[in-house]
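quick one, 100 residues, struct below
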Amino acid sequence: MVRTRLWLEGIGAAVALFLGTLTLIVPDWLEEVFGFDPDRHSGAAEWLIALGFAAVSATLALLARRDRRLARRDRRLARRDRRLAHRDRRLATNRSASHR
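---
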């Protein structure tokens, strides 16, 4: 679950970054694709859209980073738990062998 969310957030951040960069480089692509011009070629709408894409990209990138850290922590804790369980089994076996 975390891995899937991590990938979706990373891909979403990359797509938003691409669209924001595209909007800054070719601002008229929105008018060509959607067929309307809300700001009458002033460029204000394109700047707002580019800022929106940047905000979405940054948010998704931070969420992906958080999920990656959580996944690492979970793996580290699982390894520690397995190591401790193995040690406990070994100690129990040694104790039972010494009582015989």
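The helical segments are 2-25, 29-34, 44-98.
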